[in-house]
Amino acid sequence: MSTVNTEPTTVPGFECPPCLGPVTSARKRRTLIGYLCFCVLGCVPYLIGASAAWQAAGFGLLFPGAGFISAGGWALLLFPLTLLLFGVCLIAWFGSGMIIAPTFLWLGTAILAGALTGDAITAYGPASAVALVLISAYLIRRRNAKRSSADLALFAVRQQYLPSMIEKVRADAAPRLPQSERELSLADLGGVRYMLDRALQPVEEFNGFDKIDQFQTSALRYQINLLGYGLALSQCNLTPNFHGYVSQAQRNLVDKYLQKKVWDYWIYETAWGHFNFTNFDPAGRDNVMLTGWLGLQANLYMSNTGDRRYASEGGLPFRLNRSTTYQHSVHTLAKSVHDNFQSSPFGLYACEPNWIYPICNFYGMTSLVIHDRLHGTDYVQPTLPSWLRKLDAEFTDQKGSVIGLRSDLTGMEVPFPTGEIAFATMTNSFAADRAERMWAIARAEVGSLLTDGLKKESRLPLPGAGIDTGNYRRGHVGSYAGIIQTAHEFGDEEFARVVQDTLDEYGALEEQGGVYRFAKGSNQANASAAYARFWRRGDYHNAITNGPPATAFTGPLLTGASYPEVLVAAATSRGDDLRLVLYPGTSQLRQELKVERLKPGRRYQVKGGGEQQITAEADGTATFTVNLSGRTEVLIQPEA
Amino acid sequence: MACCAFAVFLVAQIFFLAHKVRVFFFGATPEEAAVASSAVAWYPGQVSKNAVPTPRWYRRKWAMAAGGGFVLAGPLAAYAAMSGAPAAKASGLPFPITICGAQLSGG
Fold first, then answer.
1. How many beta-carbon pairs under 8 angstroms link A with B?
2. What's the CATH number of domain A551-638, 2.60.40, 2.40.70, 1.10.10, 3.90.1150?
3. Any idea where the domains of chain A sit in the sequence?
4. pTM, 2 dp
C-alpha cells in the first residue's frame, strides 16, 4: 500500500488528494439505498411464501437475469444472454442517454422469469441470486480499492515532480511569435485544404465526413465543430485580413450544423432520457455538447470577422419541421449553458440526459468566455469560482485528474478516454495556472514515452492500439493531434515537432494534389491533425480571449480569391497596408484578387506577383491580377 | 403480444451486439473498411462512397432498440394490471401466462 506524500507542495490545488464531493456522495448513497430496497422487495415473495412465479420474478430484481436461475430448465440459458444484453443496454444508456434500456431490460427479464417459472423455483435459485449480489459487491469494492490505491500513489508522485516540472515547462516554452512573422507552410496549407474541401461543398452534402451514428463521438456535429475550430484558428492567428472563402467555409459549417440530420439526435435523447415527447428544443435542458460546442464555433467566426449574424435573433434556426423552428442565437446558446451551470447541483451538467461529460462542459465554459468578450455579458466571472470548486470536488479523481464521465442520476463514474491533454488547452482560456499544471502533468507522463529524448530521430510511441473517437476503430491519430495541439499551445515546440514526426509516420500521411490527410485516421482525427500542424504558442488562448488584431477590422482586407487556385498563407495589415503570402493551388498561375477597405480613390502600390499600381474605387475596393509562382509575397501599400 | 415485442427487442439487441463483437475481434469487412476510409480519401468532385446510405437496419438500430424498449411498457402495464387478470391471479403469476399464443407450464 502506498502512502501519500504529506510534504507541503508549492503547487496550488495539489496539496492533498481530492475526496469524493458531497453531491456525488449523496447520489451514490441514494443509488445504493434504492438498490437495497429493490433487493429487499425482491426477497419478500420468497420470505412470505408467495407463488413460485412471484419468487422468481422477485429474485430477478436482485440481479439482471437472476430470476431465470430460479426458473430453471431451459430458462437458465437466458441468464448469460441477459447479462450480455444488460451490458449493451448500459452502453446505450451512457451512449445516448437511453435510461429506459437497462431499466426495462432488468424489469422485463424479472417479469419474464416469473412467467417462465413452473410450480416451484429451483433449489439453488435464491442462493444464486444472493451470491451474485455479494460477488458483484465484492468485485466492485476490490476494483475501487485497487484503483484508489493506484491513484493515490500516482498523486504522490505528481506532488513530487510538479513544482520542478512546472518550472521546466515554463523554461521550455518558446515565445509567442508576432503575427507578422508567421505564415502557413505548404504542409500547413495541405491540412487547411483538407478542411476547406469539406467545408466548401454544398451545405446539404456531407462528402468526406464519417457517418456512423449521431449520438456518440463519431457524430457529424463533432466533425463540423472541429473543422470550424481549425479554420477559425488559422484565420485568427495567421490570416486575419483574409475573409473570402475561409469565412464562407466557416458559415457553411454552421449551416451544416443546422441541418436537422445533425441535431435531431436530441429528439431521441430527450424522449428516452427525459421522457419528454413534446419539446425538442436542442438548447434548453442539458445538451451542452451542442450549446457549448456550437456556441464556441459561431462566436469564433464572429470574433474573427466582425460579422454578427449569429448574434441576431433567430440567427441560428433549428428547423424541426414545417411548423416548428427553434429560433436561437449565440445569446440563447450562452444563456442555456449559463442557466444549466447555475441549476445543476454538480456545477457541471449533462450532455446526454443523465450523463455529465466534463470535456463538453469545458467547451461550454470556453464558449461563455468568448461570448462575454464579444457581447459584453458577464457570465464567466460570477460562475467560474464555484464551477471550478465543483469541478475539483465532484469531477476530479484521487490522482488529481479530471474524470471523463459521471452519471448525474447515480453518481457513478464510467471509464471514458480523457486526460490532461484533453483539458489543458481549453483551460488555458479561463484558468491559465490550472492549465499550466495540467500541461506539466501531461508533459511529464506522456513525455516519459519518448524513445530518445528530443533528438531529431526521436519518436513518441503511444501504448496500446488506441481508439479513434471519430470512427471507433483502433488508432492514435486523434491522440497524437491532441498532444501536438497542447504542446504548441504551451510553447513546447521541440516536443511538438517530435510528436508531429511520429504522427506523420504512424498515421500514414498522404499528399494528393496538395491536400494532406492521414489514411489511418477518421475525418474527425484528420480535422484535428490539420490544425495541430500550424498551431503555435497561445493560439487558442489568443483566439478566445483576444481575437485577431484591431487591424483585422480596420485595415485592407482580401475578400476575393478563388479556391483552390489561390492559397492564402498569410494576410496581415499594419493599418493601411496589406501583406499577403500566396501559393498557387493549381496550374492556373494568373489569378484575380479583390481587396476591400482601401481608402476610396487612393492609389496603392502592389509589390510582388507583378508590380503595379491600383486605385481604390469609391467603395474602397480594388480588383487586380497577380502572377503566382511558388511562394508569392504580395504587399499592397498606399503610395506616398 | 407484449412478449413477442420483447423478443423482437432482444433479437435486435443480439444482432447489434453480434455486429459489434465481430468488428471488434475480426475488424470491419473490406466493404465496411472502404466506406470508412473513403471519407478521409474523398476530394472535391468525387462522390464519396460514404454518401451511399448505410444499410437500413443499421441506420435504424437505435430506433429499433428504442421501440423495443417502449414496447416493454406492455409487460409492465400487464404487471400493474395483474390483480385484474383472473387467470394470473389463480396461477399466482405476475401477468397472464399466454405468451405469444402458447400456454406455458406456469399456468
1. 132
2. 2.60.40
3. 22-144, 551-638
4. 0.85
